[in-house]
TrEMBL record, chain A:
Subcellular location: Nucleus
Its job: Component of the Mediator complex, a coactivator involved in the regulated transcription of nearly all RNA polymerase II-dependent genes. Mediator functions as a bridge to convey information from gene-specific regulatory proteins to the basal RNA polymerase II transcription machinery. Mediator is recruited to promoters by direct interactions with regulatory proteins and serves as a scaffold for the assembly of a functional preinitiation complex with RNA polymerase II and the general transcription factors.
Transcription regulation listed as a keyword: yes
Species annotation: Ceratosolen solmsi marchali
GO-annotated biological processes: regulation of transcription by RNA polymerase II
Protein name per Swiss-Prot or TrEMBL: Mediator of RNA polymerase II transcription subunit 8
Any one cellular-component term (Gene Ontology): mediator complex
TrEMBL record, chain B:
InterPro entries: Mediator_Med20 (IPR013921)
GO molecular function, one term: transcription coactivator activity
Species name: Ceratosolen solmsi marchali
Main location: nucleus
The name this protein goes by in its record: Mediator of RNA polymerase II transcription subunit 20
Localization annotation: Nucleus
GO CC annotation: mediator complex
Subunit structure: Component of the Mediator complex.
Top-rank taxon, per record: Eukaryota
Gene from which the chain derives: LOC105366014
UniProtKB/TrEMBL annotation, chain C:
Gene Ontology BP annotations: regulation of transcription by RNA polymerase II; termination of RNA polymerase II transcription
Name the record gives this protein: Mediator of RNA polymerase II transcription subunit 18
Keywords of this entry: Activator, Nucleus, Transcription, Transcription regulation
Compartment(s): Nucleus
Nuclease among keywords: no
Amino acid sequence: MQREEKQLDSALEAIIMRVNDLKSTIAAMIFKVEHEYETLNWPNFLDNFALISGHLTSLSKILSHDKAPNLRNLTVLPLHLSPEKDEELLRMTEGRISTFAHDLVPDYLRTKPDPLVEQKMLTYETKVASLTYDASHKQVAQYNKVINHVWDIANKAREEWESETSSRATQAQTSNSADTHLLVYAVGNGKGLKSDTVQMVQGVGNSIGSNMMVGRAGGQSQTSSQGPLAGQMTKAPSTIKTNIKAASQIHPYTR
Amino acid sequence: MGTGSLGRTWPAKNKWQIPGGYENGENINSQSLPIPNQKNGGQRTVHVLHNSEQPASVFAILEYGNKVVPLIADRLFDLVILKMTNVCTDKKQTKIECKGPRFELVDFCIKLGSVTMTQNFKGVLVEIEYRPSVVPANCWELIREFVQGFLGSAVSSQIPQYLQNRMNEIYQPMDTIHQYLEHFGQYRKSTGVI
Amino acid sequence: MAAPIGTAMDSLSAALKSKIIPNQEYFLQGSILDSAVEVLLHRLRGLCDNVDTGPETFHDHEMCFSIRRGPPPELPLFLRVRRALDYPDMPWQLRYIGQPELGDKSQPTVVRSSLDIATSNTVVEFLTELGCRLDFEYIIRGYMFRKGRMKVTVSKIFKMNQGKLPDGMEPMSQSYLVELSVLAPSGQNAIAEDIRIFAEQLKPLVQLEKINYIR
């Protein structure tokens, strides 16, 4: 018995704390709306909702905790109702409630839903009871369709926005990644720079350096005055025999 | 500067107290001979030489058949040659060193090097350099007279073969290296090592 | 007399051990369209070290050789020879470049081993007789900037023509190649961070990144 009481006490304390947090968050939000409505923008306002949802989550965590007492089994009974002003009550509720009178009880200690709400619930329940399986299916399908439609619209809008921003960026594009790769591979590997003016038989089975490369018969150097030396450039893979047609390669690089 | 590298043996040491000359530093002309590699037929030999007169340079001479290609490079070239030594198949590397004192006498520079090939003494090389001139033709006679003054008849009056075709060209450090290489080659041949 | 002089190889191996030889290159590469290159040059002129005579230009010819070291599974050794076409009397440059390593996200730049050696102009004949063969070559022409130890080049690559017209070079692509590089001894990763920070300043004009060009 005592243990349960203690549990109840601690649980109640935790719940009260959370509820207070929630209350302060809502108060902050209202404050914001009332005083800062000129500078308020949607993302900032959404932050408030995020906070509130956080508090609600922690509250629900406590309530669903194993050690939390089953509050459904407990009822709050007013022990003493009087129309007189109660200072302590005023203090505890920050000036909102001054008397614990009979008209408060149905509002604050209500367990059943409001009468209006209750009536609506009744009509819904009768409607649902009268619904056949097929009809409900159809309704569900329709509902899904509508939701999907809205989803598509939202997606399309987002894509449009994104492409708009990217098209703005492409105007200012100053580097082309394809070109980057082309240049880097050319300088690093000779991709695109190797020529095949002279026909040479490829060495088989050798991935690296299987292309026979050619000495340029190019007169790049106008500075070379002497006759060019004929450098025999032949490839000699040590394990592979190949037929190499040695073309006359003129080495333009002399002293 | 004209340089002739002359003679291989030299008489008693006492003659080298040259009046007026002063001794400073030592001179090394070391050489390692990497591997003859036998690709594509024909023997290639690369000689790598260092000269303490040009401490920041490496000299390399490639001999392929009767083609000779000289190269002068920075010291880091040694590292590249090291990387390339896997290319070569043979393991016959020989080192020849020519080391000894260096004298300066007015315009002449005399280097006495005792040649050792992997710890074995082979002989002595004398290098004479006449510093003011850069064309061999202009100072050959002067050098010959100077050297014959203390080496006597060990020195031939003939122009060394290497210089014969180059008497009127400007002398370069590479020419010194070529001459040393020639002599080292003769040492190698005399021991049967190529 | 004096202390015995060690051999040349001794001093070289000592230098290697004490890590003073710059044998690693840290670099990033990117490209920029021809239309935007002026803007980049302006920005670099502002960011980099001051040179009174304007940005330094270069016009080089680079040849890439390779030589086999062993049977096929072994990669061949790649060597590059570069000469200045605008200063024919300058020494030629022999360069050994290793395989690039991109590393993971924590490595800001590509790293490859690299040795730069100045040589006389007989180097191509030397390499050819040694058994190297020419893989490819190109002409590269552009501007060079320095910032501290960092070298920034903005250059255009030209394909070489088959000999008829020396001036008939064909440019590769409508872009300039942009490279940021530092040569340093191994083990200095703070430099890579500096390169990355500099690269940030060139965005969004140029996207400098690690590109693996090995096939």
